[in-house]
Amino acid sequence: MAEEREIDADAPIFAIAVAAELSGMHPQTLRQYDRLGLVVPARTQGGSRRYSLRHVEQLREVARMSSDGIGLPAITRILELEARVHELHGRVRDLEERVRAELEKRPGARVFAAGSTGSVVTLRHGTRVRRATEVVVWRPRTPIEAGDEGPGPKDERAD
């Protein structure tokens, strides 16, 4: 049975002629977009442009927006914002994984409190908090599931 591998959408694999054909544009248009910083491909050591699947999709999106009457400066900003969203989604996934791993390391840990010195104190379910020295600052609602909003702040005390 053949092993299935995920395709890296960011791998620079297409020469300019192929990227132009896949995007439905002229190669000179791709060169112009590169000069403007609109869709900037990777370069080989010899200086040839290499486009990824993500670049081809961006080129198609630029064509759609342009045909809708959106100007190149606005399209540039939209693409910048989309790239930022893509980056932030990756960071959120990484942080969710770190939280998941931390929760797995502490299966009995349910409530966190700030100690009198400012240190984080882990409390187990049913543990009473000394009100004069510790304040509950966070309690997870449920384990993080895919698509779940995850843990959030609560105003409850752990007593």
TrEMBL record:
<protein>
    <submittedName>
        <fullName>MerR family transcriptional regulator</fullName>
    </submittedName>
</protein>
<feature type="region of interest" description="Disordered">
    <location>
        <begin position="140"/>
        <end position="159"/>
    </location>
</feature>
<dbReference type="InterPro" id="IPR009061">
    <property type="entry name" value="DNA-bd_dom_put_sf"/>
</dbReference>
<feature type="domain" description="HTH merR-type">
    <location>
        <begin position="16"/>
        <end position="81"/>
    </location>
</feature>
<dbReference type="InterPro" id="IPR000551">
    <property type="entry name" value="MerR-type_HTH_dom"/>
</dbReference>
<dbReference type="InterPro" id="IPR047057">
    <property type="entry name" value="MerR_fam"/>
</dbReference>
<dbReference type="Pfam" id="PF13411">
    <property type="entry name" value="MerR_1"/>
</dbReference>
<keyword id="KW-0238">DNA-binding</keyword>
<feature type="coiled-coil region">
    <location>
        <begin position="78"/>
        <end position="105"/>
    </location>
</feature>
<keyword id="KW-0175">Coiled coil</keyword>
